[in-house]
Records
---
Amino acid sequence: MSNYQGMRWFKADFQVQTPEDSKNWSDVELRLGNPRRARGLEGPDETEISSKARTFLKRCHDLELQIIGITDHNFSGHTDPRDWFLTHLLEQNKSVARELGREPIYILPGFEVDIGYHVLCLFEPTGKAKDLERVNKVLIQLGLTEAQRFTKGEPTPLRREDSTVSMAKLLKVVQEENGGIVIAAHADQNDGLLERPSNRLDYQLPDLLAIEVTQYPLSQKVASILGGKNPEWSRPGKQPAYVQSSDAKSLATDDQGNPKSNSLGYRYTWVKCSQPSIAALKQAFLDSESRISIDKESPDLHQTFPRIVSLTIKGSKYLEDQTIAFSRNLNTLIGARGTGKSTILELLRIMFARHETESLSDRAKQKAERAKGTFTPDTEILVEWESIPGELDRLRYTPNEGLSLVQGEVHDLPTYLRHLPVQFYSQQQLTDLTASGSQPQLLRLVDELCTAELEKLQGEERTVAADIKRLFAAKDQAQAVQNEITNLKQELLELERQWQARKDVQKEAEDFQNSSLAKRYFKTMSEAFDKDLSAVDQALKLLHTLTGEPFSVTEKWPHSQWLSQQAKSVSDRRAAHRKKLAEVLADMQADFSALFTQNQRWKEIEIELDGARDAFVSACEAKGIQPQDVSRLQELDRTKQAKLSSLQDKERQWKELEGVASELEQSLARLFGLWNQQYMLREKIAREISEKTGGSIRVLIRPMAYESSFMIDWDSLEPDRRSRLGKEWDSIGTYLFRDFLKAEPGLHSSPWEYIEWLMQDLTKLPGIVQQFKTELPPYLESMHEKWRQLRLIRVPDLVDIELYRQDRGQHLIGSVGGRQLSEGQRNTAILNLLLVRGFGPIIIDQPEDEVDTSFIYRDLVPLLKQAKSQRQLILATHNANLPVNADSEFVYALKSEQGVGRLLAQGGTDRKATATAILDIMEGSEEAFKRRFEKYHF
């Protein structure tokens, strides 16, 4: 596998003094002697100065500095390069690094000069001492010979022909003529650039790319200037980058081993580049938002999001064997058509099994199949994946064995792959996301950002909905019981009327009736006790037979002896409880016999109660009531007693069900509350997305407003299409739904509840539906089972995306749902959404296609720059704006030779070969060419 050649973060200290200026160097032990090289028998002895240079370099390594700018005042007053401390730093650099097992430090030779304020001048990193003479000559060119550089040990201000050298002149000589870089030193201090109003014109020079600050956070004044908000210091175009440096005059540390003030590494800057150079620094200063950081820790420590580390391709028909080591930030694949850019992305799609996703269009699936068509029997594809920093999984694919995980642990590969946060989008997929009927996909994009919270709410929703179905059934049962109670009461009233009609035997009849009630009461008590007996008897029978051990304890188990003892204790206790229960049952049986079957007093009372019946019959005979009438009275009594018993049962049943209506209303309210929480969660996510895009788009969520989904369910109720109601069924549904959307937000829980509300008061029926007020309510009532099911179905929320133009304020262009946008504008809107959602890698094939050209530089490029610090981006593109102006950390340029895609160049845009490939391959906007000139000076 090839090493990663894209950009990475380097720790830099741009203002480092050395013992070259012995008068101002604080560490006595490192000051240089006079002469600097002792006289030896075989010539000057350089042992001491070389040793001090090694000590200096080792301290740089201790601080993990990777770039240092040597900025001694006026370079040096010595004429012999062998007397320069910097010469020995360069010569000892590799050997010290090798000794410590580290990379050599990138040393930028330079000097600090005084032009009324202090300025740093740095030149190309070098390892050759002879290059230092060119740096020395630049200072001579500016007007300071070695003899003029110091007066009584103090550095001389930079003057030429008795005038201070201007910043404009310094920029021309250092940057334009000699390939260096100028940085205004400690610009926020009293002797710095930003402290004097007379320096404003210097600050406004466009070639001044960077200044150094000593305070961070910035003071209010400095922040307003560097933020472009101070009108007195206004500067056209981009403000300069700001960096921090130590202004080192010592290697000293405090008691904790940290650098003291103005010691080496006391302040520093993180610079992102492929390899430190002046060109790389210029690019970093031009794109300081993404390439310069003055945090204490490396920005990489904050970028812990999952990423694709590398892709290795072997044995493909149309791609040369190669390994692509991706940046954790923005990666762009470039090349003419037919070089294999899209194929590489499709190979990644295959490696993560996204080509099998059902949501892919036929066209997208065909692209994946074409990629597979490049395979040979010897093809092998490898992907390294990093979910957690430092922990690599390795996926392998071959045509014979398919996909497998060859490094890492997984229980089920399809599940593992499905949960990896990798997203793939082709241009066709972007278009499909905003096409007619794409609403479910848009909603899914939003839902994926709150999956855990949403799944919890939806789980609760399913539970509540299932309980509501039970309560609906219980409500029906309660209504049926209520109807039966009403009927029984009416029947008993009629029986009582017939009974009371026999007034001649009323007294005897009343005695008989009371006697019958008394017998029934005693029977009810007996039956209740008997039920208790049966329950206890059944419980006793259900207990497990207590034979043997309940389980076998293995001696190999931890605490096996305690577990064995515990098992015996449990067995003993259960046997004791069973014995007690058997004793309780025996006591209950004895009590039942004493209270009921063997109760002598009851036998006496029962004879007396039966006497009331005989007296009643005798009275009927004495009064001349016909035998058939007596029989009728007896039948009336039996019927009445049966009805009374039934009424008591139904009233008990009603008592158990009487709270169902209230419970149902509470459960429905709970369900509707869960629906609203789902909307509020999506609405929160939509606001966050809108904020992350800086106002380029606004994601809108309308609760339960997806009409197509509603109409599918509405049509499931449709009556006979030949009927008057059936012919207008779709129109009625559409009208009711749109009227629901016009209602006051939150007034109705769903379209179904809105229609339910209308059916309770037909005067509220809207417009055209009024003509069906006699047909619609009874029809819906006849479909009450289906209607109840619909009341428990949540109509999906509607997602729309508004697109704004950012020119002196936000101006609404249109929305995806409103269809005012062109295809390119719709794709611009969806790209905004895709790039800010999620945290895993997102791979897009030519995102610039069909996108409004004006939006690429103004909106897409800033969005890419923002997104790449929060997730990995991998793009195949033909547009120069993306790798150049979005500041791609890694560009992979392909060429085609004899029908095979081969590597042309790779690395950051600050590499010469990569920059040349970009200019040779790509076409871009005027702004892209302008930015290229600023970066590459072509």
---
Amino acid sequence: MTGQARKSATDDRQLQALEALGEQLRRLRARQRLSVVALSVRAGLGRTTVSKALNGASVPSEETIIALSAVLRADPAPLLLLRSEAQAGSRTSERVHPKRSADRTTSTVVHAFERRYRQYVANRHEKLSVIGLDLARPDRSCWPLDAAYLSLDLAVASDHSSAGLVMDEMERAGGGVSAEQALSESQRVLIRGHAGSGKTTLLQWLAVGAARQNLPAELSHLNEHIPFVLPLRTLARTSNFPDPLSYLAAINCPLKAAQPAGWADGVMSSGQGLLLIDGVDEVAQEKRPRTREWLLDLLAAYPSNQFVVTTRPTAVPDGWLADFGFGELTVQPMSVRDVSVFITRWHDAARAGSSGDEEREQLGELEMKLRETVRSQHGLSQMTTTPLLCALVCALHRDRHGHLPHGRMELYSAALSMLLHRRDHERNIQPEGLRISERQSMRLLQRLAYWMVDNGQAEISRTDALHHISEALPSMPEVAGQGDDNSVLDHLVERSGVLRAPDDDTIDFVHRTFQDYLAAKAAIDARNIGVLVKNAHDDRWEDIVRMAVAHASPSDAAKILERLVSRGDRNTANRGLRARLHLLAAACVDYATELDPAMREEVDKRTVALLPPRSLEEGRTLASAGKVILELLPGPEGLDEDEAEAVTYTAGLIGGGAAIGVLKKYCTYGKGMVPWYIQMHWNHFDIGEYAKEVLARVTELPTLHIQSLEQLDELDNLRVPGNLSFSGDFDAEQIKKALARTEIHTLSLHRNDVIEGAEFLEEYQTLRSLTLDSCHRVNDLSFLPRTSISTLCLWLEPWEELAGLKGISNIKHLDINTVLPYAHLDEVPMSADLRSLELGFRTASGTSLRGVSRWENLTRLSIFTHHGYEHFAEISSLGNLQSLELFGWDIGTSLKLLSPMPKLRRLRLANVRELDAAVLHERFPGLRELRLSSPGAKIDLSSLAGMSELQIDVRNAVEVLGADQFPVGSVTVYPRPRD
């Protein structure tokens, strides 16, 4: 054997030993049900060190092996032997996944490539394009993502508890949670949001943070991940969706040829992939089932990676990916505070690129004026609900010297005019080369936009774009005389501010809203009313149809509405499509400049048939039609509780002065969730006006959520309830100011990095419940025994740093959703005699249920379960348990592990697809209440008909069968089906 061959054989043995060592450590960790975070905390090691040892990325030290063995309760000798074999005579410190290469030098290559790739992702996505930031210098129309990013608030869509987020958690956080917290709670998330709401920016921010490994504490577990940004608008242009090997090629990454063999597969196989999949709505409807299958194939092959998928709200049905563990979240409109922050950041960025002191002074004056205008003019609230609209408002306010257009369509029109022509003309900029008028540019852009929409594409190849321009040039001799199709296209890309070229062969619009606006104008100019109505069911055409009505003459607008109504009327067999078309007609009414009253009456008749809404989902659908719905929303008289709840939720989503008028009617309606929904949207209205006109009139507020100092100042004008929630960096004195206004019973503190301790709460002896959610500087709970607090909720708290746990004996209700540094519950150092215990997603994923029986007086248990939850059967030994709530996946299998529990009366199950009556009969003979959350599923209750005393509540199922086999009133279905 040659020296080289012997060296190669030695290298192979070392790699195999390293692989075997990692596999052994992973198996031991799985047996102990420890997360990487929990393992690193308990072993006293860095998370990166533990991750590398588990994945075989490097040869761990002897100290690391010994520390890990102690935590994993394993004999260190076999592990140390494998380590010795892996190291034998070698300085190899980096490992390559075997599929990448068997060559020893490849490990260094992979390491170097990943550094290059991370840097590429950071460079590629670190700038955010902001429309109109600097009209004189298009090259300055970007700002750093770090400064531009505004954390989105995400609301739970329906009852998708698969995300680990249910209504209780949504209520704690004031109607929504931050994107950072939501993503920390779930490995798989589908995010819905309207155009310009910030979905793509969120993915950019995640990609850059993961690439730079500097994500915030809630998402620090993603810092070791490799981000893959996969825009579906680009992927859909090919015949097949890519596998990991083709990711870089599919997005035309310049590093595609440099990636080591098997690199992407190795990343995904190790669970270190962060897949950021943007824009399901930008895939043609007929391709979306194939898109879903592609996602499911990825999940089947690489289940341990992080997936974040975005879409417009109506592009896919509710629960589209719920069967596969995806939680669904919806982007909330920007709050008043968000808008204020955005205005400041926009003008700061503009000042950074200004030419002198005079311009900076003018920008300061414009900022102050705009801030006051937004506060005082209710009409602007509809024009500043998303980052895109805010950017347009800021740009136009600057461009028009403090004057703004009225209405959204005027805003788009003015923005296009600004970008296409006025920025050069009014600033005396004489562009070199071609001179194309605004009107000529609009015609050419309309042609491209309409072709892209008609062909279901969000991008167009340069070849296709040149083809359409060359077709137009013969009828535009003034333009054709200046240059050929190539020069015209280059001019539009370089000078219009509306088109861009992501790469050498791709053209797209800077934002899809402009594409839709121009396509709608093209459709009206060509009188393609039939095409508009024919495609009205397609979510990608909804905005185009609305804008077409705005562009149209009164007679053409009436024709569009008439045909929409008629098409809806004909669809008697498909109620969903019928409702969608009639609601789109209602939304179009708000866009029509002039409309025959008889036509409006016909539209209203169809809309009233859909009222009142009976669920939050129906409320969201109605709200998408716009403020025209507010005129049709009924008062509380004669409404059932679920209808009143949905009406107040709908009005709050729409917002504006008219919405305040609707909500005032419900101020004395104290049933159900109505008071909660009324206060939930406070931050989306003018703070002072909403407090005076609405909140001050509410008979009894259930909880008051405070998110700004301006809201805090309004407490003097309100009847402050005994339940308060604070989100943000409030200090102890500010919190005490609010507590002085009431007899406090429940206090929740969310995302607070200022408050250093909660000892000041000792003086409030009426306080019964405390929630600490991401309050990372509160690390001592020894004050709790000196309070009357009996309910404690700890969310995303650094448990390993908490002091005083052993002395806590007065807690009766404990809710934990943070990674615990314990393998099992019996290691938790708390002597409290609990009556209620909740274990959230983060806790349940790293700590087993062994020891849950130590709390023998538990009457309620709520846990996020998962496949193979270790020691799950120990629940059966809780002889006093009366209520059991299970969230997550594979619940049916988990229930079969239990022994009979005769005292259990209430059972709540999430993500139920089918029921096993035998299991329920045998395990829970005394069951009296059953709640099922079944998003997107068809549920058959027939198998439970023998349990005649059972009260059943079914939520969000597509269809419920067998309810007629139970006594009247025994089965409640939400939302209630319509006749």
---
Amino acid sequence: MRATSSVIVGRDSEIGLLGRALDGAARGSGSAVFLVGEAGIGKSRLAGECAFRAYGLDMPVLRGRATSTGLVVPFRPLAEALSSRFRAAGTPDDAELLPYRPALASLVPEWRGGAAPGFPDSLIELAEALLRLLSVLGRERGCVILLEDLHDADTETVAVVEYLVDNVAGLPVLLVATLRPDPGPALDLAHAAELRGTAAARELGPLGDEAVRDMIAACLETGRGEVPQAAHRLLSERAGGNPYVLEVLLADLLDTGRLGRTDEGWRLAERFDPTVPTGIVRSWARRLARLDEPVRTLLLTAATLGGRFSVSVLKDVTGFDDRSLFAHLRSASEAGIITPDGAAYDQYTFRHVLTAEALRATLPPAEQAALARQAAEVLEGPGEAGRELSDEARQLVAALRLAAGDEAAAARQLELVGRHMLAAGAAGSAVVLLERARKLAAEDGRDAVTVSLAVAQAQSGQLDTARALLDDLAPVSAGSPAAEARAEALVEVAWVATMAEQREEALSLTRAARALLGPAPLPVHEAALAVVEGHLTLLPGHAGREDPTEAERSRTREDLAETERSARRAALIAEEHRTPVVACRAWQLLALLSRERGFGEADACLERMLAVSEEHRLPVWRAEALVRLGANAFMRTGEAARLETARSAARELGSLALLQHIDGMLAMQAVLGGRWERATEIVEQSVEASVRVRNHAAHRYLLLVRATSAAHQGRSRERDQALTRLRRAGGEESMLVPLQRGLCQAMGALMEEDRERALAELDASLAWERAHPSFFYLSGRYGLRPLLRVLSGADDRAAYRETLASPGAALAWNRVFLGMADAVLLGREKDRAGALRAVRATGEAARAFPQAWHLALRLTAEAALADGWGEPVAWLRTAEEYFYGAGVQPVAAACRAALRQAGVTVSQRRGGRERIPAGLREVGVTPREHEVFVLLAERPGNQEIARRLHISPRTVEKHLASLLAKTGRADRAALCALSAESAG
């Protein structure tokens, strides 16, 4: 007889918490709840109650459970949760999910596009994609994702859950997770999230005495006053307030007839047999004894296989034919012991994990070991010789071998699975498996496992742990096979350190690898080392001093030349020995180094990288090659067609990191093209998401784009805010410094008509580039700076020719300024016709960059006026019209002032009222007064306002007096505060 409660008792507080969380999700205010407690305490009952209430509110519910068999299956509960929804409702087809489908392909079979399922390149990318999916599912009424037994989840799943917990606020999503209070990553996550205030964690204690009585009454379907006192006392003592144990013991009392209903109500037998079970194990032994022998055999075998088991595996181990097997499964299911697993058609699970544990405990240890050994031999036996075991099957075999006492055999299976997961990109799960294998391995095989574990630790972000593992290994002879394997691991760890810009650590690792390989390493090992060491030469700090001498710069050039030669040898060797990842790393490095000789050669390297990645089916490296090819094309021509192609490849790959990197470049292209609204749109879509996925490089670049866009529009307050965020994000230690100083701050100074500060910023950018190897050419060194120096008389034709010889001079943006520098020099050389032709040719090439063109006109016109050539008045009028329309008033005012100095009548601008906020228009603020008002947000003095607007300080005073009267502000400070508020 089954004895289960149809209601939840003693959990009113938790039910109230879940109810409020459901209401919040329905309103778009998401949250996360962790239910923590021992096995059987009622966590799943509460999760089920939450699901029931969500169904009642017509909210989508996604429910998954981690495997309780000890198997490490990356993302198992997440995949099951999505399947539980999509199996019935189908996959969503919302357009906004298209960029995230590839990242979710490992969880959603329908989105794999025929490709073999793999692991995503970044867990955070997967987590962000899952967050977007849940947001879409919950858009109308909210949605719920229930993840049970999180303590059994793989480390990748725990990492994804942590991301969801930290970012679910403000979204229509409720996340509920259940877990035991066992030490581990899941419990650490629950406690940390509660401390951060990003989740509620409730630990479920045992039921109190009255709650136990209520539960007994619910199980017996009677009033609580009808529960026999003796039965209440007995079950309270033996169940310890655990609802599941209480139900099992109550069922045993009912099955044995010691508790029964009489005419006078429920009665417990007064005398007890001395063999009465004193715990759940004895209770299950008694229940098993009442089952048919084949059903007992099936259940004991299934329990040996774990809390969840495969029908096909169970058939192989028991030897039952299909008809008998399913008959016995049906009997066990009807008895309430097992139940079909809704996540997979051929899976069953025990109704509770304690059931499997209790059943195994009914067997003597020797019999348990014999049954486990038999099951392992069947799985590994001759019948399976032609079939490669899956990762799950190997882990099951390892568990069975361990139960049979064969630790070495278990270690071998775990090591194989760990290495496979490492190769597939599931570094966190690889760490768990390889750590288990290392503990179990025989002494002669432990070092090999440790080497693999070190690589897994590095790839999961634990560089210090990886290094410590390798350092603790026993010494080996240089050049031996063991030394070569260890050196390969050191190189892989060094690559991770290089990509993390941990230069000193990476150098130390490469030196250790060389020591192990000996004086004459194999070519393939030398190639892998050369590539890592080559990338290290490009990190900030390689050249040493901030102000290197000419001799030091010469040595740096020699070092880079040798680096390029080594990288080229490495690329050819890697291709010959079929180590394609090393080859791609080498061609990527060569593409950067060869830019010094022109972008054609750099593109040839990238095309080779693309070919290698496609030949060896390396989608991540293929996308990387396309991105770099697109970036080069953009810099040469200003066109973004190849960048869009690269974006499509990154989207198909599901790489959010690459997508954000490409979006940053597309946004910068929009800034340079004067399409500032488009740039803002791209940045706002990606800048915060890049923080969430910890894509720090893309985040810094997007912040730089935001600052550059503001600088190019003359919005100094917005520029400074973005630069402050960039500094906090580590921008001052990154390769972005030249762009920040030259493309952003120098251009911003010119938009404020401060040419001296612009040159100072460009000089600072050049000094940084001279101290650090740099292969990025939009910093002003090859365009804007030469023009300003030619205008000031600091550079002559010889300096211009030197700049023109650099590959950076071929870039479309730089050609705008270099073309005008040539025109200015020709004008000074009295070649007036040549100067005019140079201006017109530059204008034809500058169509993609309207702001750069009009700024160049404004700067060049003054030289043309002074030297008597060209059409300076027309150029100033054109530039004034452009900058006035763009709202960059200091440059527009400077153009009008230059026209007046040229003796040209300039009509007063009275337009611009459309840019005045409605509140200020209503009180009569004029366009000129509004220009003064906007500048007040930065709290400048009257002299500064006058200089920037090219008006007199006396006129500024008049405008300020008028603004105070019209706005009703008491003083200048209040007027400045109003301006800042309006700008914000």
